[in-house]
Write a structure and sequence with these properties.
This protein is of the alpha/beta class. 35% of the residues lie in helices and 17% in strands. The protein contains seven helices and six strands. A six-stranded mixed β-sheet has the order 3-2-4-1-5-6. Strand 5 and strand 6 form a beta hairpin. Helix 6 crosses helix 7. The radius of gyration is 16 Å and the shape is globular. The protein starts with a strand and ends in an 8-residue tail after the last strand.
């Protein structure tokens, strides 16, 4: 079995480098184009599962008929939602440094930790793997922190190193599922997009 793990297309908050967790934004114009090109390259590859947040759902719709999976939603950023790094530092002095120093246990005010995000994302992935035949491809559309935290667990990498699994918008990671478990084959494939200027 193969898993294609996909990050959603670009949103306004991504472009403006704002914290984006549960804020339910649609794709921006560039994100729609990315999703279109992704669909041209990957439509019909397998069963499609998606975070129910609109940016992921819009990305997934071009790939087939997605099934919503609440466990794939992005990390809840609580009171940091929509803030830039500068605004975060103004409102919560020192909190940004904590995010970089101890991302595993960092909890945004009113939000969840990356460890909690990893646990529910991993459980969602196990449920997806348990559906259907063993030869089928599963296409999973989700979010950066969910992807990175899942890949840390899959690769037996400490969650504090999650940034090594960074994904561009509509980046595709391929995972093979076999008798020995899950194996990472490729990371953040963006070949369906035109080269950056």
């Amino acid at each position: 079995m193969k898993l294609l793990l996909v990050r959603h297309g670009q949103t306004r908050f991504n472009l403006e480098r704002r914290f984006l967790g549960r804020t339910d934004l649609e794709l921006d114009e560039e994100g729609c184009q990315q999703a279109f090109l992704l669909a041209q390259a990957y439509r019909g590859r397998g069963r499609v599962y998606s975070s129910p947040l609109r940016r992921a759902w819009q990305t997934a719709e071009g790939l087939g008929s997605p099934k919503p999976v609440p466990g794939l939603m992005e990390m809840d950023m609580g009171e940091l939602e929509g803030l830039s790094r500068e605004e975060m530092e103004d409102r919560f002095p020192g909190l940004l440094a904590t995010w970089f120093e101890d991302p595993t246990h960092f909890r945004p005010p009113g939000g969840e930790t990356l460890a909690e995000t990893q646990e529910r994302g991993w459980q969602a992935l196990q449920e997806i793997l348990g559906e259907g035949g063993e030869e089928e491809v599963r296409v999973v559309v989700t979010h950066q922190l969910v992807l990175a935290s899942i890949l840390c667990r899959l690769s037996d990498v400490p969650l504090s190193k999650f940034r090594k699994f960074s994904h561009g918008n509509t980046g595709v990671t391929t995972v093979e599922v076999g008798p020995e478990g899950l194996r990472l084959c490729s990371l953040n494939d963006l070949a369906h997009l035109p080269p950056a200027p």
